[in-house]
Every structure is written in C-alpha cells, then in structure tokens.
Write a structure and sequence with these properties.
Elements lengths: L8 E2 L5 H14 L3 E3 L7 H10 L8 E6 L6 H15 L4 E6 L8 H13 L3 E7 L3 H10 L4 E7 L7 H9 L3 E5 L11 H10 L3 H10 L4 E3 L6 H8 L7 H8 L18
Parallel strand pairs: 1-2, 2-3, 3-4, 4-5, 5-6, 6-7, 7-8
Helix pairs in contact: 1-2, 2-3, 3-4, 7-8
Length: 264
C-alpha cells in the first residue's frame, strides 16, 4: 500500500491569492500532501504556493484530478500535460479520475492513466467517487496499482464498505469533507468528547480519521483553522470514544449530484 502523507490539505473552493496563501500556510505548518483538481480552477494558484513556500518540491505529495469531461483517452493525456504546466511541475505524485461520469469509460479512460504513469507524468494513479463495483472494475482494468480512492467521508457518512474494500486491495481512502463542511461542530457527542480533551469537535473528527487504518483526511482551511486541523494529529481517542463516534453514522451525504454513480 502506498502511504499518503497524513493529513492532506484540500483546496476545493479556494481560488487565486487566497488559495496560494492557504496552501503556503499549510506547507509552513507541516502539511506535506496537497490536493487540487482541474475542476477547482486553482492549479496555477497551488503551483505558485509550491514555488514560493520554503519546502522542497520533492517533500510535497501533490495530487490533482482529471475533469469528468476530459476522460476520453486523448483528452486525459492532453489535459494532464496542461495541468502540469499550470502547476509548474514535471510530474504529480497522484492523478485521479475525478468522477466516473460524462466521458468516463473504463476501457478507454483507465489505459490513458496507465499511459500517463508510463510517461512519468504521475507517480501513482487514483480514482474518486466510485462505488464498490466501479472500484473493483478499475482494479481489474488498470495495469497500475490504484494508490488512493477519494470519497466523501465524515462521522455522519463513514463509508465502511468502501474503506474495507479499499484495504483489501491495498488502496488508501482519502476523505474529502472530513469535517462535514464544519457541521461536526454541531454534533453534541463530538463536543462532549472534545471537552474531555480540551479540544474542538473539528479536532475530534479529524483525530477519528487519523486513527482509521488506511484513511487520510484532506481538510480545507485558512489561517488559524489550518493549524488547528494539523494539531489534531496529537489527539488520541479512547476505544470508547471511537465506538461513540461510530454510532453517529446516518448516511448523510453533503455532495450528492444526481449523476453520481451511487444514484444510477
């Protein structure tokens, strides 16, 4: 299993100078895994942060994702090269299929990811927003091992089946929306656990992620929130606290487009 640096830093919704500043703050705080995407329209801003931060490029695990409309074979190759230009790098560490929709065709799309890896433009390949069946299919079609599967994952949506299947295939699960877009702050059980640790509910949620084998959260943030999220690495939860958090599952999705694979 490829071990991704823990935690990652998410950039969805960040743009321009604010994105560059947030990524620089994250890198200076200690994050060594940065996640972006063609869809986010911020690869140039992330690239500027990498250029100006006092951290060597080889010390940063950089991931981006190919837009669903760019998943035909030739488009994967062409737009990956464009992403590298925007990011200002020769290669990324991880290249994802962002959503298995629109131009996605496993027999055409996935061999293009193998080709991009063969060219040295990415060290690893990954997928995002797949179902168990689609993940199993991708494992069979790809020649490259799948390093990561990125999905919405938080205490209200724990995705045990997908996490378990990923582990069986030595795939890391990368959790987006790991603090449920901030909603974890309103969960009484997390607040009570936080009070016992002189922490915040956000830190408790992240500590829960950090303690799950094979799960890497990628929280977003700016300013002090970036440092607060990183500090959750030092928070250890008891088995009883983890069981209490496990009981919060209710299947609540925050990102649920009609065309998502699980709605088909």
């Amino acid at each position: 299993m490829t071990r991704l640096p823990q935690p990652g830093f998410g950039t969805s919704g960040h743009e321009g100078e604010s994105c560059t500043n947030a990524v620089r703050t994250a890198l200076e705080t200690g994050y060594r895994h940065v996640d972006t995407a063609q869809m986010y329209d911020n690869e140039r801003a992330v690239g500027r942060a990498l250029e100006h931060a006092d951290v060597a490029r080889e010390d940063v695990f950089l991931a981006t994702k190919v837009h669903p409309s760019n998943l035909a074979y030739d488009d994967v190759i062409e737009t990956t090269e464009e992403s590298l230009e925007r990011l200002g790098v020769d290669a990324v560490d991880l290249l994802y299929v962002h959503w298995p929709v629109d131009a996605y065709d496993p027999e055409e799309t996935l061999p293009a990811f193998d080709e991009v890896r063969d060219r040295g433009w990415t060290r690893h390949v990954g997928v995002s927003n797949f179902t168990v069946d689609l993940l199993e299919e991708a494992v069979d079609v790809l020649e490259s091992p799948i390093a990561a599967h990125q999905i919405e994952l938080h205490p209200r949506l724990q995705q045990d089946d997908l996490v378990s299947v990923a582990r069986e295939h030595d795939i890391e699960t990368v959790a987006y929306c790991p603090i449920a877009q901030g909603d974890v702050a309103d969960i009484d059980a997390l607040q009570e656990i936080a009070d016992a640790h002189d922490a915040t509910p956000v830190q408790v949620a992240l500590a829960w992620h950090y303690g799950r084998d094979g799960v890497v959260p990628i929280p977003k943030g700016t300013g002090d929130h970036v440092r607060e999220n990183y500090a959750a690495l030092d928070l250890e939860l008891s088995d009883d606290e983890r069981r209490r958090i496990a009981g919060l599952e209710d299947g609540e999705r925050l990102v649920d487009p009609d065309r998502a694979a699980w709605n088909r």
